[in-house]
């Protein structure tokens, strides 16, 4: 299965994503764009490239030793538009804030917008998350242990993407702090439907 996957900013071999796997992430990595001039995009990313119009859904369970502020890992979709000066992206997963792991979603059109949600069980350091196209919009859900889908964000600009846009969809991790060393994030049950 790894043959159809590629990587960026990742100095290790691509794991077999059909089984549980880890992604190793150095510190000083992030995917974040805020005015007036912050534009970081050096997170390790394992992905498949598909036409945006073919994308249906992606789902994964993510866990990790979240210890440093902004430690993060989960699903990541980079949206490439031919001729555009900047790409767009959506990332969702667990992110460490104020000493607690939280479920986070970042939607980046021109600039990044960030939203946070408590994990379903307060003592958990893992989450199952899903991105899915519904009614021409991209929705992000947190999946509870009972299978209930908790809506977290609706990306309305999804249906305005040009027909020739492509997505690099898969998993990523980041440790924006410049200390703390390597972060190892664990993934299970990655499914991408196109």
Automatic annotation (TrEMBL):
This is Concanavalin A-like lectin/glucanase. Coiled coil: none annotated. Pfam families: DUF1349. Gene3D superfamilies: 2.60.120.200.
